[in-house]
Amino acid sequence: MSGSERNHNPAGNNRPETLDCCGGLNNVDYSKMDVTLMEELLKHINFHDSSFCVAVIAIIFNPFFWNVVARWEYRTRQLSRLFGNPYLACYALGFMIILLNVYRSHSMTVAMRAQARWGVMDRTDVFYAGIALMVLGTLLVVSSFLALGFTGTFLGDYFGILMDEKVTGFPFNVTENPMYWGSTANYLGLALIGASPVGLLLTAIVAMAYKVAIRFEGPFTEQIYQQRSQRRKHE
């Protein structure tokens, strides 16, 4: 459904209209939703805990770092000059991103272990749901990496290492950003397995950070390939 499509209430229907996540209108009055569960979840989270703060910083910093560095490389080619060629420069940035993501995962795990478990989540079905999410997340991450390769995964486009054509097979025929959403599924699964309310919140922050990153990366990557297409037309 396009963003311009709307479903209006018929005349005389006095139920409040609210926007859904796709931009359509629905008849749910969110002011009357039961927020008890959310309040209970937040009660189990210590927002002043240093490990929680470190995890939040790591989550936000990572996509900010790689987007800033990759765009700087695209505009200046300084990393390619420093390492002698764009491939070595891309590998160096890729390994740095991997290390940062390992630290992010570590900081989230430390925060989850430092804070209380939640009895509502401490159930067998929730545990196995977490296992299923981690299996799904790992599948998306690994298959995405195999489809794109190292340079395709770690911003090779910004180094001038462009793919011949857009990857449309699995997992990209399931979701447009499988690496990001697979990683998010892994963190959600870990939170469910650990019955961790702080893990749920940190996972939500991961999802929001990725959402912002996608808004910056998607159009910029499209622009890179459009410029290549225009150059080829003039050759």
UniProtKB/TrEMBL annotation:
Reaction it catalyzes: 1,2-di-(9Z,12Z-octadecadienoyl)-sn-glycero-3-phosphoethanolamine + S-adenosyl-L-methionine = 1,2-di-(9Z,12Z-octadecadienoyl)-sn-glycero-3-phospho-N-methylethanolamine + S-adenosyl-L-homocysteine + H(+); 1,2-di-(9Z-octadecenoyl)-sn-glycero-3-phospho-N,N-dimethylethanolamine + S-adenosyl-L-methionine = 1,2-di-(9Z-octadecenoyl)-sn-glycero-3-phosphocholine + S-adenosyl-L-homocysteine + H(+); 1-hexadecanoyl-2-(4Z,7Z,10Z,13Z,16Z,19Z-docosahexaenoyl)-sn-glycero-3-phospho-N-methylethanolamine + S-adenosyl-L-methionine = 1-hexadecanoyl-2-(4Z,7Z,10Z,13Z,16Z,19Z-docosahexaenoyl)-sn-glycero-3-phospho-N,N-dimethylethanolamine + S-adenosyl-L-homocysteine + H(+); 1,2-di-(9Z,12Z,15Z-octadecatrienoyl)-sn-glycero-3-phospho-N-methylethanolamine + S-adenosyl-L-methionine = 1,2-di-(9Z,12Z,15Z-octadecatrienoyl)-sn-glycero-3-phospho-N,N-dimethylethanolamine + S-adenosyl-L-homocysteine + H(+)
Protein's membrane topology: Multi-pass membrane protein
Cytoplasmic domain ranges by topology: 104-130, 216-235
Keyword presence, Lyase: no
Keyword hit for Lipid metabolism: yes
EC number: 2.1.1.17, 2.1.1.71
Subcellular location: Endoplasmic reticulum membrane; Mitochondrion membrane
Function: Catalyzes the three sequential steps of the methylation pathway for the biosynthesis of phosphatidylcholine, a critical and essential component for membrane structure.
Family: Belongs to the class VI-like SAM-binding methyltransferase superfamily. PEMT/PEM2 methyltransferase family.
Protein name as catalogued: Phosphatidylethanolamine N-methyltransferase
Source species of the chain: Amphiprion ocellaris
